[in-house]
Amino acid sequence: MNDQIQPAPIHVPDAELDDLKDRLARTCWAPEPAGGDVDYGTSNARVRELVTYWKDRYDWRAWEARLNAYPHYETEIDGTRVHFGWIKSPEPDAIPLILCHGWPGSVFEYVNVIGPLSDPAAHGLDPNVAFDLVLPSLPGFGFSGPTPDTGWGVGRIAAAFVELMRRLGYSRYGTVGNDWGCGIAPELGRLAPDAVIGAHVTEAWFDAPDDPELIAGLSERDRGAMEAWQQFSTTAAYAMVHSEQPQSLAHAITDSPAGLVGWNVQCMDDQEVEAILTHASVHWLTNTAGSAIRIYAEADREQLPVAADVPLGVIQFPHDLPSVRAFVERQHNLVSWTEADRGSHYGAYDAPDLLIDDVRQFFAGLR
């Protein structure tokens, strides 16, 4: 490929789907000691449940068709393939918006918000706030395929997306992010401050300041959020492995679909089975299970600053890792903060109406 943009509808060959089912049928089950199903990681019973459903009931073609209801394209940026959905609004004054997912998710995180954001009138919403949507698979993830080299952390991905939006002809646009997208979306604003009108995220990243007075004055809510982040940083075993030894793990989760879903489900076990298996299928069928996890190691190595001047909007879903608002206010240009009454880490999927409403309100004031 070169810098041209080419149509790239999604289609997984039948042979690859047959191979997946065959591998699932021949799963070699890990022995589990008595009591090993509690506090030792994903249990044997849970993996068996998911593998059985994946093998006997899951229909990849239905999900593939759902995504293919929208046009898809590909281009080459900085030596790697970038695959993206490009959904143009029928509204003439639509705001361009790039949506950034994370791990172990995929572009399917946003499948429930595409229609209402791009064509609000068709969904009973005010057509004066509408969006042209650009929905890329992060380099190294999903339909973009494995990256050919190292170094694809938040900064390099954001730079690639700045170039993508330039190629699409957008000189002013907004960004939306979840999970790793919460770092990528504001980073676009740092790299292209004249182009990015605002960043909307579900988690606002921050550096814990060395300020005893500020910490002592935290609200009860913020103190709980700080403690949650501290606990996450010391107990998220998957993040430690990804940061230190991603390639060591890559061999196992690239060779075994049962191993892949057993590993990935630790971060999305509150989701419905179909959603869990769709994200796992994307990673498996595109051979990106191993390359996607490298973003943790790359982010550790690049050490980008967290703060950015771009206007920031935050929606906090109750079943997600909370951000410390006092720290966010100090380190970002925070202009909107919403605490939702429902929704998980994948709020765009399981509470789409709340995300849609918040995104629309945020960007309506930033045209």
Automatic annotation (TrEMBL):
* Record domain Epoxide hydrolase N-terminal: where: 5-110
Instruction: Please give the start and end residues of each transmembrane region.
Output: none
GO terms, biological process: epoxide metabolic process
Q: Which UniProt keywords apply?
A: Aromatic hydrocarbons catabolism, Hydrolase
InterPro entries, alphabetized = AB_hydrolase_fold, Epox_hydrolase-like, Epoxide_hydro_N, Epoxide_hydrolase
The record's active-site residues are D179 (nucleophile), Y296 (proton donor), H345 (proton acceptor)
For molecular function, the Gene Ontology terms on record are: epoxide hydrolase activity
Mind telling me which Pfam families this protein's record contains? EHN (PF06441)
Q: Which family does it belong to?
A: Belongs to the peptidase S33 family.
**Protein name (Swiss-Prot/TrEMBL):** Pimeloyl-ACP methyl ester carboxylesterase
Species this protein is from: Microlunatus parietis
